[in-house]
Task: structure prediction
Amino acid sequence: MSSEITKVTQHISHNEALIFERSQPGRIGYRLPPLDVEETPLAEILPSAFRRSDDLEGLPEVSEVDVIRHFTRMSTWNYSIDLGMYPLGSCTMKYNSRLNEKVARIAGFAGLHPLVEEKDAQGALEVIYELQEHLAEITGLPGVSLQPAAGAHGEMTGVMIIRAFIDARDGEGASAKRRTMLIPDSAHGTNPASAHLSGFSVKTIRSTAEGLTDLDHLRELCAHGEVAGLMLTNPNTLGLFEKNIKEICNIVHEAGGLVYMDGANMNALVGIARPGDMGVDVIHLNLHKTFSTPHGGGGPGCGPCCTTKELEPFLPVPRVIRKGEVYSLDFDQPQSIGRVKAFFGNYGMMLRALSYIQTHGFDGLREATEAAVLNARYIAHGLVSDYDKPFDAPPMHEVVFTDKRQSRKGAHTLDIAKRLIDYGFHPMTIYFPLIVQGAMLIEPTESVGHQELDQFIAAMRSIAREAVENPELVLNAPHSTRIGRLDEAAAARKPVLRWKPKEAGVAG
Amino acid sequence: MSSEITKVTQHISHNEALIFERSQPGRIGYRLPPLDVEETPLAEILPSAFRRSDDLEGLPEVSEVDVIRHFTRMSTWNYSIDLGMYPLGSCTMKYNSRLNEKVARIAGFAGLHPLVEEKDAQGALEVIYELQEHLAEITGLPGVSLQPAAGAHGEMTGVMIIRAFIDARDGEGASAKRRTMLIPDSAHGTNPASAHLSGFSVKTIRSTAEGLTDLDHLRELCAHGEVAGLMLTNPNTLGLFEKNIKEICNIVHEAGGLVYMDGANMNALVGIARPGDMGVDVIHLNLHKTFSTPHGGGGPGCGPCCTTKELEPFLPVPRVIRKGEVYSLDFDQPQSIGRVKAFFGNYGMMLRALSYIQTHGFDGLREATEAAVLNARYIAHGLVSDYDKPFDAPPMHEVVFTDKRQSRKGAHTLDIAKRLIDYGFHPMTIYFPLIVQGAMLIEPTESVGHQELDQFIAAMRSIAREAVENPELVLNAPHSTRIGRLDEAAAARKPVLRWKPKEAGVAG
Amino acid sequence: MLHQIGLDSTADLFDSIPADLKLSRELKTPAALSELELLAGFEQKAARNPAARRPSFLGAGAYSHYCPTVVDHIISRSEFFTAYTPYQPEISQGTLQVIFEFQTLVCQLTGMEVANASMYDGSTALAEAVLMAERITRRSKVIACGAVHPEYLDVVRTYVQHAGIDLAVAATDPVTGQTSADIDRLLDDKTAAIVVQSPNFFGCVEDVEALAEKAHAVGALLVLAITESISLGLLRSPASLGADIVVAEGQSFGVPLSFGGPYLGLFATREKYARQIPGRLVGEAYDKQGRRGFVLTLATREQHIRREKATSNICTNEGLIALAATVYLETMGRRGLQEVAQQCVQKAAYAARKISELPGFSLPYSAPRFNEFVVRAPVPAVGLLSALASDKEITGGLALSRYFPNQPNDFLVCVTEMNSRNEIDALVEGLGQSSGA
Amino acid sequence: MLHQIGLDSTADLFDSIPADLKLSRELKTPAALSELELLAGFEQKAARNPAARRPSFLGAGAYSHYCPTVVDHIISRSEFFTAYTPYQPEISQGTLQVIFEFQTLVCQLTGMEVANASMYDGSTALAEAVLMAERITRRSKVIACGAVHPEYLDVVRTYVQHAGIDLAVAATDPVTGQTSADIDRLLDDKTAAIVVQSPNFFGCVEDVEALAEKAHAVGALLVLAITESISLGLLRSPASLGADIVVAEGQSFGVPLSFGGPYLGLFATREKYARQIPGRLVGEAYDKQGRRGFVLTLATREQHIRREKATSNICTNEGLIALAATVYLETMGRRGLQEVAQQCVQKAAYAARKISELPGFSLPYSAPRFNEFVVRAPVPAVGLLSALASDKEITGGLALSRYFPNQPNDFLVCVTEMNSRNEIDALVEGLGQSSGA
Ligand SMILES: Cc1ncc(COP(=O)(O)O)c(C=O)c1O
Ligand SMILES: Cc1ncc(COP(=O)(O)O)c(C=O)c1O
Result:
C-alpha cells in the first residue's frame, strides 16, 4: 500500500466459534420470575401428542457473558457506516442518527400493540399521518401508503396499483391485453421480479449510448397497446437524470400506460425536483436509503408507495386518515389492491424517517441532496483520469466507472473492489448495472467529508497504479482481512446452510 | 504463535487522527432550540472585561458523523471485558451486566438533582439505604457510608475515621503520639498514600516467606504505643488469605490500634467469610471490582466505607438513615470526620451495585465467589509446571507467578505480558506486588468459562516454550497490534501532555 | 469543493434537470428542530398512546414477551445496525455468521432442513410460501384453513391475485375451533397446498399431522404458519408433523411490539426445495488458506441474477431483527425457551379457568390451546373491552368483531409470562364487573 | 474443574480460611430477582423521586444541561466502558487517545498549560489543589473566599484537617456578593493560596484577576474553582485571569445529574507545576517504527511508585465520565459551547428581571452573573419553594438556609438552556402567587 494512504492498519482481531460449538449443557443466560399461578398438570392442557419430544436438543446453552462476547467479537468483523465511508452505489449508505434510534425506542411507541383501539393510539397514528404528508410533499404525489416493508415490496404494491387501475379503467377484458411492463435494461433486478409477481410480462427497453432511456425504442414498444406501464429509475442506476422524463411519461401515458418510478435514488432529488411534477404516477421510496433508517445488515426497511390522486383509491388498506383532530384507520376502500402486510408496515422505520425529516428541516433536506450530488461529482472528477467513465454526462448522486483500463492488465472490477478493502474502504457496488461491463457504481452520500473523499480518490488512484505496476497485489487482495476471498462457487455447489452436530442430525 | 491457539487473528483496523487535526472551521455537530426570551445586550449582563476574547479558538469544529466515526474508530483499539478474559490481578475485571446499565439510566434516577428536598427523593434515598444494609451484611460491619468515590478515597476516609476515633478516645495529646500506620510491604500503593493524606507516617511490615504478614515483626512494631492502626489487605495482594487475621487484629487492638482492611479483594470472600467477624474495624469496598460496576477505562468507581458500630459516629456526613418508612439525610454527627465529597458519592455506581446484588441473590453472590476462586485455582494448577510460583499455599481468587524461570533466557515479566497480547489476552497485573520480583498477578474472576481458561493456560505455556526456543519472539512482542511498545522513558523525559496547533500556542 | 470541480454554484450541480422540472420553492416540510424540541414532540405523541402503558392481553399475531436486556445492547452496536447487506464477505463476517446461526436456530426450532435469512414478516412469508407451493407442485389451487390470521389471509389474497392461484377457505369447526371436515370437500388433486396456522387465530392447536396426511395423500404440500413462535418451545416440531414449508412470525423472539413492525418472517422448508426458497441464504465457505467463513449463496435464485424469473422479488429483508431474534434465542437458550413456553401455557390456563367461571362467560372452543383463547361474553365484546380499558386501565383482548362481525360477543385473550397473576386477577374481576355479571 | 485440580468439593476451595471465621449461613441479602422483577422494583423506586419529573431551577454545583444523544451512545460502547485503566498501551489506545484529547480540551477551555486525566469531582479536585498549593509554596495557610460552594469548603476542611494547613475564610460582601476586602486582612506572606470560586456559589462572577494579583503579590497561588463549567464558554479564561491552579466540576459537560454522581473533576495548572499535579497524565509516545501513540506518563508522581510520597492517593478516577465530557465538548464544539453559554446567560437575565419585578422580591447581589442568582423573597424561602413544588410542580431553586441559616428568605435560582420561557414564566407566576404577593 502506498505509504501516504494510511487510513488503516492491522490490529488483533478476536476469533469466535459458532454458538453451537460453544454451548455447554446446563449453562443459562436468562432468569424469569417464578410462575405465580397454580400450576395445572401439563397433560390437562396439552396432551403429550401435541408436545415436542426432543427437549429442544441442539439449541445453545450459554451464559449471558458468553452471549455478549459472542456477538461483540463477531461485530468487530464488520465494516459499518460508523467506521467510514460506505460508497455502495444505489444503496445510499448515509449516517444513521442516534437520535432516531432513541425516538424509535420511546416506550409509548415501542410498547404499543398494533391492534389497540384507535383512540388509544392517536399519537402513533399521527406519526404515520405526518410522515405521509411529508412524503407527499417531497414526491409531489399525494396518495401515500407506508405499508410496504422495503423497496421491492413497494414496487410490487405500486405495480399492482397500476394493474388495478387499468382493470378498473378498461374493464377486465381490455385490461387483460395490457400485461406488459416496460423496464430499462439498467434497472435493478427487483423491478422485473416485482412486475412478474403482479402478473406482468416484462419487456426490456434499451439504454442509449448516453446512458438514458432510448426514446425510439420506448415508442416502438408502446405502439401495440399492450403496455400497462413503465418502471423507471430516476436518476437512473447509472447516476444520470433522465432529462427526457417528461416526454417519456407522455409517450407512456399516450399509449395508455402509467409510469412507475423506482425512487431508490431520491437522494439526488429531495428538495430539488419532484417526481409528481415530472409526470410520474406512482413511486416507491426507500426510507432505509434516502431517509436514513439504518440498513441493519440487510433490513428492516420501509418502502412507502406514493401515487397521484387518481391512483389513491387503489392503495393498500387500511389507510391512515385524519378527520379534524382525530386519526383513524380507513378500511373502506373498495378499489384497494388489498393488504400487503399485516398491521401497518415497519412502523419503527417510520418513526426514524420522521425524525430525520424533522431534524433536517426543509432546508436541511435540500442541503443534504446538494452535498450528496457534490460529493459524487467530486469523485467523478477525481477518478476520471484513472478510470474509464463510460458516460460523459455529469452524474447526480452516484457515478459509474468501469475496469476497462485496468482489466487489460488482468485486474477486474472484483479485484479493484477487494483491493479497496485493504485501503480501509467498503467497496462500491460492483457489476451493477448489468449493462455496463465491469461496472463500479460509487455513491458517497452526503455523510462523508472532504478529507475522506480525498482519501478515497487517492486510494482508487493508487490501485489503478498497482494494477499496472504490481497486478498480483490487486488480484490477491484483500491482504489485510481476517479471511481472504472465499470460494463462493464451491459454497453454492454443495451448500451448507446450517450448523449440524458432528455425528447425528437433529430430530424434530 | 503455535497453531492450536487461535483465539485471535489480524484484521483491518481504522486509523484516526486527533479531533483537533480533523477540525474544519464552520462544521457543527449540535443543534439547540432557538433562544425563546427577549435578548438583553450582553454588555448589560456581563461587561466585556469579564468575557473571554479568544472566541474559544482551538476547540474542535466537527459534524455529528465526524464525532461518531472518531470515537467508534478509537474504541476499536481497546481491549475490553466484552472481548474476553481480562485477568488483571487485584482489579477484579468481571462482566458488567447490561441490566445494571439500564437501571442507572432510569430517568427517575438519572435526572434527579442531588439538592432536591428529601421528600421528593425517597426512592433515591431508599436505594442508598438498601445498599448500605446489604454491604453491612456482606462485610459484617454495620456502619456504612457510600460517599467515597473510589477505593483510595475509601481508604482515606477509613484512615481518617481511625484517627478521629483515637483522637476522641485518647484525647488530642495522647493521640498525637499515635501517628504510625502499619502497612505490609505487599500492600497497594494507595494504602501508604492514603495514610499519609491523613497525617500518618507509615511503617512497613515484612511478609513471611509464605507470603503472609510477619507476626513477629508486627508485634515488634506494635510495641511502642505509636501505632494507630494497621492497613491489611485480605486476601492479601499475593492472593493468600491471611489465616492469622484474628491474631493480627488482636495484636493491633491490644496495642491500642485499629485494623483497617483494604477490601479490594472481597471477591474472594463475599458470602464465605466476613471481615467484621475477623476483628476488622473498618474496611473499604470497591463497588467497581467486587460489585461489577464497570471500570470505564479508569473509573468512575465507588469506595464505600464500612465500620464497626463503635466507629459509626465518625463516618462522613450526611448519613442516610431511615425512620419508619421515611428516608432522610442526617447531618447531625458531631464526631464525623466531615464530608469527603460533595453530595452523596457516585450514586450511579450504587444503583448498579444494588442491581448486581439483587440479580445474584444471596446464593448467587456466594457462587460467584466460589467460581472466582475455583478459576484462580485452576490457573494456578495449570501454570505451576511452567512458571515459578513463589508461594506454596493455594491461592484464593488470584494467583501470583514470577518470571524467574523465563528471565534466565532473557524474557521478563513485561515481555511475557506483551506476548500474551498476541495470543488475544489482556495481560495480568505485572510487577505488583512489589515484593515479588517479576510478579505476574493473575485474577480470572468468575466471568470466564472453562474453554477460555484452557486457552489462557495454553497460551501461557506456549509463551514459556517460546521464551526458551525463540526468545526474540517474546522480547519483541506484541507483533499483532496496531502499534508496538511505546518508548515510555522518552515520553516521560519530555512530556507532551496536550495537542498544540502547529505554529502558535492558544491564548486564554 | 464546488470550485475544484469547475462549478460556480450549487445550482450548477443540477444542470441536467430541465428547469421546468425543478422545484422553484423550498419544500413545505417543517423547519429543522433541535434534538430537544424533536424529542419533546415525539414524547408528546407517545403520551397519546395510553394503551402502551396498560397491562394488556392482546395477542393475535403480536405478542408481549420478556426480552433480555442484552438484546438491545447488541443490536445497538453500530457494527451491526449501520452495516449493509453482507455483499463483501471479507468485511462482513459478523453479519454473515449471525445469519448462519439464525438459519440454524430456525431449523432447530422447526425441525426443518433449510431456513432462509428472513422475510418481511409472518404474513408476507406465508404469501411467499403459497407462491412457492405453486411453483413446486405446478398446481394452482390453495386451501387455507379458516382460522389462519385474517390479516395473513388478506396478504395472501393480495399476493396471489395475479398469480392465477385459486384460494379456497375451509370452515372452522364451531365446537373445536379447529379446521372442520369441510376441508375434505375442497381438497383434490389440483391442490397445491393446505395452509394451516397452529396455534390458530383462535388460539386452538390444530391437528396439523392429520392435515399433512390429507395434503400428502393428494400430492399437495402442507404449509404451516405460526404467529406465536414461543409455542415452538413446547409444541411438536413442524417437521415431525409433516409440514413441507413452515413460516412464522418471529416477533416473539425479543422484538418490540412497535405498533406492528418491524417484525420478522421465518421461512423453512425441506432440503429438496432449497432452490425454490425465496430470499437470501447464507452458507459456509472457505478461503484459500482453508479458513472457514460465510457467504451469501445460491444467489441464482434471486432477482439480482434471475430478474423476473427469481423465486421472489425480496431484496432487503429484516436483517437486524433476525439478529435480535438470534440474540434472544441464544440468551434464552434451550431451557429458557421451554420455560417461557411453559409459563405462557400455565398462565393462559389459569386465566381461561378463572374467566370461564364468571357467570355468563364461556370458552366456545374445545381444542387444546397454547397462550390464546376465545372468550364468549354475555354482552358485546367491543363495549365490554372499552369499559374495561377506561375503568380498570386494562386492555382485555381483541374483540373478534374486528374480523368476524358475526361473533359480536367473542374476544381473543392472550396471556404471556409478562402478565402477572395480579393482572390476570384484575382482568377477571374487571370482566365480571364490566359485564354487569 | 474441581476434580481436575484435585479437590472434592467447593468447600475445599476455602480451606485456608480458619473454620471459625467462615460464615456458617447464607447471607441475609435478598433472593435473586429476574430482570423483570428487578426493573419493576427500580422503576417503583424511581417513581418515588417526583422531583426528577419537574421543571427545575436547581443548580448550586449540579446543572441540568442538554446532552447530545451521541454521548450516551459512545459511552455505551463496551470497548470503552468495560475496559480498565490503560495500563497496556498496545491494546488501550482508544482510552489513551481520548484522555489526551480530554486533557487538551481542558487546557483549551481554561487556557492553562497542563491538565490531568480527571479527579473524582470538583470538590475533591479543589481539596487536592489546596494540598498541591501547600506542596508548591511550602506554606501552610490557605484563604478561601466565603462564596466557595459550602460543600466544597467542607471537603477541603476534611482533606486539610491532618495536613497542618490552616484554612481561613474571607467574608463575602453583602452588597456585591463578591469576596470582600476582608481578604486583605487575612492575606500575608505565609499564605499558600487564595481559593476563589467564580461564578461563586451565589452566582456572582468574582474579580478573579484582582485576587490573583493580591495572591501573587505575597507569593501565594491563586486557586480558581468553577462549579458551572459551561461558564467557560463565555467568561474570561482562568489563565488570562492569572490563576495558577484551576479546578472545575465537569458535570455540565454531558453528564447526568444522577443524584450527585458520578461527576467529573477537572484539574489544570501551569507547566512548571506539572510534576506536582495529582492523578494520572497521558502523554504522547512513539514506538520503534515511529508510530504515534499515547501512554500513561510521569507515573513517578503516583502512589504506585512513590507510595506515601505520591502527589495524591488517587488511583481510579472518572475515566468514563471524562469520555462523556470529551464527546460532549467535541460534539458541541467551539460554537456550541458558546451558544449554550449565551443561552444560559440570556435566560437567567430574563428570569432575574422578571422575578425582581415581583412585589417584595429583590436580587440582593449586584455583581455580574452567569446563570445563577440569589433571590430574596418576602417570606421564608423553604416554605415558598415547598408551596411552589406542590402547587405548580416546579422546583424553584435552592433555599440558602440549607447552608446559611442567617439567610432564611434567600434562595438560589439557576436557569439553563433547558428551561423554556414557559417554565420561567410559570416560575415567576408561581413565586408571585405562593408568596402571597
Ligand atoms: C434501484 C433500486 N431499486 C430497488 C431496490 C430494492 O429495494 P429493497 O432492497 O429495499 O427491496 C434497490 C435496493 O436494493 C435499488 O437499489
Ligand atoms: C489492593 C488495592 N487497594 C486499593 C486499590 C485502589 O482502589 P481505587 O483504584 O478504586 O482507588 C486497588 C485498585 O486499584 C487495589 O487493587
